[in-house]
Amino acid sequence: MSINLSRRKFLQGSAAGAVTAAASVADAAPFDRREPRPLAPKAVGMLYDSTLCVGCKACVSACKQANGMPVEQPERLAAWGEGAWDMAEDISGHTLNVIRVYQDGTMEQKDRDKDGYAFVKRHCLHCVDPSCISVCPVSAMQKDPETGIVTHNPDACIGCRYCVYGCPFNVPQYQFDETFGRISKCQFCNHLQKEGKLPACCDVCPTGASLFGLVTDLQAEAKRRLAAKPGEMYTFARGKLGGDRPGHEAPLGHYQPHLYGEQESGGTQVRYLTGVPHEKLGLPKLPDYSFAAVSEGMQHTLYKGMIAPLALLGGLVYLARRSVKSHDDDEDSAS
Amino acid sequence: MSEIAHRPLGGRILTKPVMILGIFVLIALYFIARRFLFGLGDVSHMSNGFPLGVWVAVDVVVGTAFGCGGYAMALLVYIFNRNTYHPLMRPALLSGVFGYTLAGMAVMIDLGRYWNAFNLLMPWYAQLNSVIFEVALCVMAYITVLWIEFSPAIMERMPPSLRQRYNVDKVRAFLKRYMYVFIGLGVLLPSMHQSSLGSVLLVMGSKLSPLWYTNWLPLLYLISALSMGYGVVLLESTLVSRAYRLPSESALLASLSKVVAGILALFLIIRFGALLAGGHLDLALAGDFRGNLFLIESALFLAPVLLLATPAGRASQRLRFLAAVCLLAAGSLYRIDSYIMAVNPGNGWVYFPSAPELMITIGMVCLEIILYLLFIKTLPVLRGSANQPQGRLS
């Protein structure tokens, strides 16, 4: 009986305490986010216009060629095409970009949410404030200070796969099927760009659905398309925005009034215009800051100049020394 | 009191339980060999949706929390100067030595490009914003500190000839003199990396269920590590004193239980407070998989608080034991959930460990138990009175 009584008392007391303490936790924010990263001065990027994409997958095969990646076939289709036809269903350790299709109901009309279908391209979005770089312990992920391209250095990489874990778009892919696997991710054909060429996918895109350019230019172009009247004839650039290739005339798509990547995760250098809501195309809803800014805000608060840990260490060593001494004295007096 | 000292248990090493555990270790070795020959995908179900599996979530994130016994006790004995708990120190330290060393081994199996692992120590590769970088360095340093803290127990038992040849007594004297530095480090390092195991998850953002994702993750991880450390001490001293008929540390454990109940209550207050503040508490009652996981976790966290709330509960060996089991289950589940089960990478990815993957984890735990038994039988770890016969079976 006495046990029950004291337990009840304890519960009452702790419940009251819990409510007060919970209220104070609610008010306090343990730390601030790190300042958002700015767009690189000569940031290059891509505007992917889902309404222009015809799903030909020329970009997928050009990407494989440009990056020396093998053809992929799901096991159940292995007998088909005898390894000549790439059938990757998503990006993987051996596929850096892929065209996926959204399907609904009768699939009567392209770029329609209901009873329609739409294409979407999957590869690295080259975040302005990338999580993969923030989590990498050995600086294997790097962001070019000029162009903002996010590259990967396999010689530094230890294969811990935190970039895979932390990327909000699930882009970096580890080769689990290899004995000596590595991380694969789109590096925006950095090697071709150094030779003055376009990224392979933008280079071969027949409709300009994958359009290369400076991020600031692409942003303005996307806003123009969003501002114009749907169905109106419009001249779409191909290859590179502002390049010398001839464009083509086509009616403007019925866009969702949202340029994906302008704000998402602190902004991305690859941005999307789509006819169906972006969540349905596997582009996740994200806040306008990078989660890397959250974890770095935490770390920078705790470990600023290593002052707090060193001060703590000093205190701990002092206390430990005092205790060890007093314990020794106890033993001495006991013996 | 003076004749009660640390001493080896003695007794046979190759007992039947050890041999059975050994079989599991051999099975694990077979799959570890396969992993290095044919790659991670050959033995594990990890994928690019769930790139971290049980080796990280269980062997490292839960394993090091089980290894926090030494950390938790050092905090009590040396920082809060509660010398009465000193008899529990060495066994707790030993479980830390193995918990952490084997977690380090698990990482080497798990790393996809293990041959580059030394890059972690190359200053030109260091990435100071990376939480994982900090965890890796802290864990490496702490494994070293743990072995140093435990080394007197080994040196005490060295044969005199060896001791003379390698000047061991001089090293011992040096260590004894400056042990407080290592004790300080041995409290600082786990405080850093155990909280950082929570900070790692801050980058997960919307991939992690809001029932687990909070800016208080680092503090929650730190508290859960401490509570699990004390949980291991409660569990271990009960088991060992029963199995080997050693004097029970009942009075000590009862007062330790009070500390445990206190920090667990703190954990619950912060967790629920943060959920209330974020307005996500309704998800707990959604009735879905993650909501139910959260409820099970919370019940397991609350149970030890209630069990240990009264002096009668704390005095009962059975209730203390039950509380320790609940709290270790709660902490483990919390860690596995937040690293894997509460994570939703989207795109229909699912993860359940493969049998070989689990066998490697099980083999590692078996190895840990074998080594623990070996050490307490041959080294002065446990406390016993000197006039008691050596070992239980002698």
TrEMBL record, chain A:
<dbReference type="InterPro" id="IPR006311">
    <property type="entry name" value="TAT_signal"/>
</dbReference>
<feature type="domain" description="4Fe-4S ferredoxin-type">
    <location>
        <begin position="44"/>
        <end position="74"/>
    </location>
</feature>
<keyword id="KW-0732">Signal</keyword>
<dbReference type="Pfam" id="PF13247">
    <property type="entry name" value="Fer4_11"/>
</dbReference>
<dbReference type="InterPro" id="IPR051555">
    <property type="entry name" value="FDH_Electron_Transfer_Unit"/>
</dbReference>
<feature type="signal peptide">
    <location>
        <begin position="1"/>
        <end position="28"/>
    </location>
</feature>
<dbReference type="GO" id="GO:0051539">
    <property type="term" value="F:4 iron, 4 sulfur cluster binding"/>
</dbReference>
<keyword id="KW-0411">Iron-sulfur</keyword>
<keyword id="KW-0408">Iron</keyword>
<keyword id="KW-0004">4Fe-4S</keyword>
<protein>
    <submittedName>
        <fullName>Hydrogenase 2 operon protein HybA</fullName>
    </submittedName>
</protein>
<dbReference type="InterPro" id="IPR017896">
    <property type="entry name" value="4Fe4S_Fe-S-bd"/>
</dbReference>
<feature type="domain" description="4Fe-4S ferredoxin-type">
    <location>
        <begin position="115"/>
        <end position="146"/>
    </location>
</feature>
<dbReference type="GO" id="GO:0030313">
    <property type="term" value="C:cell envelope"/>
</dbReference>
<keyword id="KW-0479">Metal-binding</keyword>
<keyword id="KW-0677">Repeat</keyword>
<feature type="domain" description="4Fe-4S ferredoxin-type">
    <location>
        <begin position="148"/>
        <end position="177"/>
    </location>
</feature>
<dbReference type="InterPro" id="IPR017900">
    <property type="entry name" value="4Fe4S_Fe_S_CS"/>
</dbReference>
<dbReference type="InterPro" id="IPR019546">
    <property type="entry name" value="TAT_signal_bac_arc"/>
</dbReference>
<dbReference type="GO" id="GO:0046872">
    <property type="term" value="F:metal ion binding"/>
</dbReference>
UniProtKB/TrEMBL annotation, chain B:
<feature type="transmembrane region" description="Helical">
    <location>
        <begin position="175"/>
        <end position="193"/>
    </location>
</feature>
<keyword id="KW-0472">Membrane</keyword>
<feature type="transmembrane region" description="Helical">
    <location>
        <begin position="213"/>
        <end position="235"/>
    </location>
</feature>
<feature type="transmembrane region" description="Helical">
    <location>
        <begin position="321"/>
        <end position="342"/>
    </location>
</feature>
<dbReference type="Pfam" id="PF03916">
    <property type="entry name" value="NrfD"/>
</dbReference>
<feature type="transmembrane region" description="Helical">
    <location>
        <begin position="289"/>
        <end position="309"/>
    </location>
</feature>
<dbReference type="InterPro" id="IPR005614">
    <property type="entry name" value="NrfD-like"/>
</dbReference>
<feature type="transmembrane region" description="Helical">
    <location>
        <begin position="131"/>
        <end position="154"/>
    </location>
</feature>
<feature type="transmembrane region" description="Helical">
    <location>
        <begin position="52"/>
        <end position="80"/>
    </location>
</feature>
<keyword id="KW-0812">Transmembrane</keyword>
<feature type="transmembrane region" description="Helical">
    <location>
        <begin position="92"/>
        <end position="111"/>
    </location>
</feature>
<dbReference type="GO" id="GO:0005886">
    <property type="term" value="C:plasma membrane"/>
</dbReference>
<keyword id="KW-1133">Transmembrane helix</keyword>
<feature type="transmembrane region" description="Helical">
    <location>
        <begin position="256"/>
        <end position="277"/>
    </location>
</feature>
<keyword id="KW-1003">Cell membrane</keyword>
<dbReference type="GO" id="GO:0009061">
    <property type="term" value="P:anaerobic respiration"/>
</dbReference>
<protein>
    <submittedName>
        <fullName>Ni/Fe-hydrogenase cytochrome b subunit</fullName>
    </submittedName>
</protein>
<comment type="similarity">
    <text>Belongs to the NrfD family.</text>
</comment>
<feature type="transmembrane region" description="Helical">
    <location>
        <begin position="12"/>
        <end position="32"/>
    </location>
</feature>
<dbReference type="InterPro" id="IPR051817">
    <property type="entry name" value="FDH_cytochrome_b556_subunit"/>
</dbReference>
<feature type="transmembrane region" description="Helical">
    <location>
        <begin position="354"/>
        <end position="375"/>
    </location>
</feature>
